[in-house]
Amino acid sequence: MIPFGLLILGIALLYIGGENLVRSSVVLADRFGVSELVIGLTVVAFGTSSPELFVSVLAVFQGRGSVSLGNVLGSNIINIAVVLGFSGLVAAIPLPKDIRRREVPLILLSYCAAALLLPAAAAGVGATRLVGLFLVALLIGYVLYQYRLGNQGDESLTAEAQAIAVGESKADAETDQKILKPLVVAAVAVAALAGGGHLLVENASYFAREVFGVSERFIGITIVAIGTSAPELATSIVAAARGRPSVVLGAIIGSNVFNTLLVLGVASLSGGFGVLESGFGIDFAVMVSVTLLLWGYSWRGKLPRLGGLSFLACYAMYVVFLLHTSGT
Questions:
Q1: Each residue of 227-251: pLDDT tens digit?
Q2: Element (H, E) at 268
């Protein structure tokens, strides 16, 4: 009963954190003069990727490299196939030209860089750390690039978003807390997301090990990845319901880039992944495939509700494949 109760608590923390992170990100976007998309790609993405970072680095220190790598690959797959899929069912999501021209290609480039970890892990810790340093350097370049675009007004807030941001901040408009208040709310929201994700992961992993007895790769790709992706799911569904499609896209795309470059980079620098289980090449292929599917929808200019359903169907088939190949 205690693990089940902690699972429920984790879900509650994730929802509360997601709601408040969306609110504060809209206010910050208005006050710093950058777009919702850029805020989602950086601030929200880092916040929702914090559970992946914590879990993957911890798994590396515990000598569970397959859990660490599986967590990131599984989270990236879930972010697009499940999080975007459910968000698309809540409301059709517009896909602006920037998604097609810039953001999805950047995700694919980050995947190519991360793929170097498979031969590096086989070569040894030194090679793995070198690739990790390369991934972190790429992340720094990515953040600076997004910040520069934000300062150029790459995609300004809509009049509706500005009105909401102004309305939510009117009470403290003449105080010195114009920026401090949403920053504090965002920090507390990130803490709630990290805490909720940790509770969900630990207790879900307990059930997976004790009840089902599955492999570390399976746990990392599914159970742990679902748990650490819950912040993205909570944040994106709340954002979609509140009419914030840019925050949805920013959180998902930015989170995948942060997962790939920051989480894998730091995990690699922390000591490498050791001897990995087989099958991660297939997981990389699935991750690239669902991203290419998103790219395909971006050429149509929007993700319809039927498109959201197609992503969910893809993930269901992937899980069936994992269950079949793992012998569970």
A1: 778 777 877 777 777 777 777 787 7
A2: helix 264-269
Q: Domain spanning 2-326: which CATH class is it, in words?
A: mainly alpha
Alpha carbon 308 to its chain centroid, in Å, reads 17
On whether the CB atoms of residues 104 and 79 are closer than 8 A, the answer is no
Question: Distance between CA atoms of 251 and 229, rounded to whole angstroms?
Answer: 11
d(CA 322, CA 57): 24
Report how far residue 53's alpha carbon sits from residue 104's, in angstroms, rounded to the nearest whole number.
Answer: 22
Q: Report in angstroms the alpha-carbon separations of 271 from 27, 104, 131, 198, 266.
A: 39, 30, 12, 22, 9
314, two tokens = 């893809």
Per-residue pLDDT tens for 68-117? 898 899 999 999 999 899 888 888 888 888 888 888 999 999 999 999 98
Predicted TM-score (pTM) of the model is 0.78
Alpha helices of 65-151 — where are they, by DSSP H? 65-78, 85-90, 97-98, 104-114, 117-123, 125-151
Contacts for 273-276 with beta carbons within 8 Å, 24 or more apart?
A: 273/60, 273/65, 273/66, 273/68, 273/69, 273/117, 273/121, 273/128, 274/63, 274/65, 274/121, 275/65, 275/121, 276/65, 276/66, 276/69, 276/118, 276/121, 276/122
- The most distant pair of C-alpha atoms in the chain lies apart, rounded to whole Å, by 63
Pairing relationship of beta strands 302-303 and 93-94 according to DSSP bridges: antiparallel
Q: What angle do CA 33, 35, 255 make, to 5 degrees?
A: 130
Grouping H, G, I as helix, E, B as strand and the rest as coil, residue 316 is: helix
